[in-house]
Amino acid sequence: MKRIGVLTSGGDAPGMNAAVRAVVRTGIHYGLEVFGIYQGYEGLITGKLVPLGTRDVGGILQRGGTILGSARCEEFKTEHGQQKALRILNQYDIDGLVVIGGNGSQRGSFALSKMGYPVVGVSSTIDNDLYGADVTIGVDTALNIALEAIDRLKTTASSHQRAFLVEVMGREHGYLALMAGISGGAEAVVIPEVEIDPEEIGTVIHEAYEKGKGHALVVVAEGATYNATRLMEYFKQHEERLGFSLRSTILGHVQRGGNPVASDRILATRLGAAAVENMINNNVGVMTAMRKGDISTISLDEVVANKKVIDLELFRLAKILD
Ligand code: ADP
Ligand code: F6P
Q1: The pLDDT value given to residue 161
Q2: In sequence order, what are the residues at sequence separation of 6 or more whose Cβ sits closer than 8 angstroms to the Cβ of residue 91?
Q3: Cα–Cα distance, 201 to 211 (Å, whole number)
Q4: What is the mean pLDDT of residues 82-110?
Q5: From CA 313, how far away is CA 201, in angstroms rounded?
């Protein structure tokens, strides 16, 4: 193995840059040439490849986003797109590819791997929805950003005795909402994995006031059936009967921006370095992940065949602490 490529794909996550830096510097440490591929799979099939040296990845450890850029690429989902990618990799004499990204991106890794190409994935997504990874790159930073917003909203909510909905990201997985709810002391958490009746939320808000609280705060995942928009619609319709009005804040992409916290920098550095070492040792078709406190690998086959399930015990905890 002489030359490897690295790309970042899907939703960016704070810490991706730290992972890119680790891949480049670890590769060079072991005598490899490392090519950066710009704009994820899109750049792979259109040939946006550039050699990266140690200095090219200087000063990025602390920066959010990804210097390589990211993309969603529909063409790569097709066999035709994947064949195009293989042609580019062969044209540039690239012997192996490191893919830093989330669920969809690792499906892409698996597709290339099934075609016999050596790929190692690096688990990176603020959603924390990758099977086989306890925690992924970007989660802790995103959680801290959400938490800061929640703390601020609680202050103003308390001054006015108001109820607030805060919507956090999470397309299919409620991890971020659940953890933000627990660490932010929310009165209720709404996640995609557990269907709710909006009346239940109304009751929780009432109970909060009955308990003498000065505010009520509900954390909602964007992917929940009753996300913030739908809950607002419902509560507006029933405002008179329920006797309170709600305000809603959708945090959106704010959570994906900003500098990675220490834990994300360390996790990304370790996962990126491990990806290169596994590649060199011919342990390919795998994803590097934090598992039970250790940096480890799991086969891509297993990653894509399974769905990560949320710990409902934590959901129960969130409920009893309200
Ligand atoms: P994330 O990796 O953050 O979950 P996406 O789900 O948008 O983000 O996936 C990122 C990209 O990965 C997609 O735009 C596509 O190029 C590729 N991808 C997603 N699913 C597949 C699939 N089933 N097969 C091949 N490539 C895929
Ligand atoms: O997958 C990460 C994520 O931030 C999800 O939580 C969210 O639903 C999605 O990406 C948003 O995607 P986009 O950046 O394309 O709007």
Answers
A1: 86
A2: 47
A3: 15
A4: 98
A5: 19
Q: How far is the CA of 33 from the centre of ligand 1 (A)?
A: 26
Question: Any idea which fold 141-257 has?
Answer: Rossmann fold (3.40.50)
User: Where along the chain do the CATH 3.40.50.450 domains lie?
Assistant: 3-138+260-305
Q: Is 127 among the catalytic positions?
A: yes
Alpha carbon distance 61, 305 (integer Å): 32
User: CB of 108 closer than 6 A to ligand 1?
Assistant: yes
Residue nearest to atom 19 of ligand 1 (CA): 104
**pLDDT at residue 209, as a whole number:** 84
Q: Which ligand is nearest to the CA of 192?
A: 2
CATH of segment(s) 3-138+260-305: 3.40.50.450
Please, what is the angle between helix 16-29 and helix 262-280, to 10°?
A: 40
Atom 16 of ligand 1 has which residue's CA nearest to it? 73
